[in-house]
Design brief:
This protein is α/β, with parallel strands linked by helices and 345 residues long. The protein is built from eleven helices and twelve strands. The strands form three sheets. A seven-stranded parallel β-sheet has the order 3-2-1-4-5-6-10, with helices on both faces. Strands 7-9-11 form a three-stranded mixed β-sheet.
Length: 345
């Protein structure tokens, strides 16, 4: 490939869990000439071929700047997403949905040839927890009770229209399971357990029991493996959706093994009630509605990604979770605002 043929790639949400892994993968790729990482706050991260710019997708006044950054790109990887505040779904709607619409409009105006969008297992309608898993043709209506799943599903419909109206733009939708790496542990602890939750509590000697209840069965993937799939989807002539997950499927027994604990059956209603009380008191940021959604997520089949992207996870789901737990205990992080490490307790 000639240097003039190498790709200019713009990445939104470039400083988060997925963004840092995707930017690093792009920076290593010879077929990528340059990477422009967009985020609300400029990071202290230096990578080859990579520059940074500040854009807040939730702000209408940042639209011209966004359009300027995107207009000469060969590809846009859209990862930007806010999980909080769960008590203010209007705020997350502004960032996640309206912000995504601004990205899609900029891609259309700039006639960008490739758009890779971060969808999620959360976009899927409730489905089976066992068996071979659902394919990419499973309905994507989400779970209406949770903001996260509503927003992911809504954007699937937006992209349906975008693909119809802009057939010259190759659109890829990545639908990964839960993504973990050691460097994102502090951020994920703050998002789901709260900034004051002591990571040191996640130790075998302090957690002898793990609750086991109906629906506690999900998939996980190391973020770096997801980033490799994003890279391959960007470089290959593929369209449509790709499920991403590693084996094995995680359940209470798996979690108990990771924590050297014992899985004990408890009523699901009791767990939900405790979470709802903590959320209402603003002790826990993860909402009971998100809990309901997670328990309904289907198991994913990943044959299409393995076949068309020639992609295979290099890290098991158990090892990805082990890396996450190691990071939580150590307060691991990265040189970006979202991933700043901090140990509590």
């Amino acid at each position: 490939m000639n240097a003039s043929d190498a790709l200019k790639v713009v990445v939104t949400g470039a400083t988060g869990n997925v963004g840092t892994s995707v930017v690093r993968a792009l920076a290593r790729e010879p077929r990528v000439a340059s990477v422009l990482g967009l985020a609300r706050r400029r990071p202290g991260l230096t990578l080859p071929k990579t520059e940074w710019a500040e854009v807040d997708l939730s702000l209408e006044r940042d639209e011209p700047r966004l359009a300027q950054y995107v207009e000469d790109a060969d590809a846009v990887v859209h990862l930007a997403w806010r999980f909080q505040p769960t008590h203010d779904p209007v705020e997350t709607w502004r960032s996640n949905v309206l912000g995504s619409l601004r990205v899609f409009d900029a891609v259309a105006a700039g006639r960008v040839p490739v758009l890779v969008h971060a969808s999620s297992v959360g976009a899927y309608s409730p489905g089976p927890k066992t068996g071979p898993g659902v394919s990419e043709s499973w309905p994507t209506h989400g779970w209406p009770g949770a903001a996260y799943t509503r927003e992911k599903a809504y954007l699937e419909r937006v992209l349906d229209t975008f693909e119809r109206d802009h057939p010259l733009t190759r659109v890829v939708r990545m639908r990964p399971a839960f993504l973990f790496k050691e460097e994102s542990a502090s951020e994920q602890r703050r998002i789901f357990a709260g900034r004051f939750f002591p990571g040191g509590l996640l130790r075998p000697e302090l957690l002898p029991l793990v609750p086991r209840f109906e629906g506690l069965r999900f998939q996980a993937l190391h973020t770096d493996d997801a980033a490799e799939a994003y890279l391959r989807a960007l470089l290959r002539d593929v369209r449509g959706a790709f499920n991403l997950a590693a084996d094995p499927v995680v359940d209470a027994e798996t979690l108990a093994g990771l924590l050297d604990a014992r899985a004990v059956k408890v009523p699901r209603s009791a767990v939900r009630g405790a979470l709802a009380a903590a959320w209402k008191l603003r002790v826990a940021p993860a909402s009971p509605d998100l809990f309901d959604a997670v328990l309904r997520l289907p198991v994913l089949a990943t044959e299409r990604a393995r076949r068309e992207l020639d992609w295979e996870p290099t890290v098991s789901s158990v090892e990805a979770l082990r890396a996450f737990l190691r990071g939580v205990r150590a307060g691991s992080g990265d040189a970006t605002a979202p991933l700043t490490g901090r140990r509590v307790g």
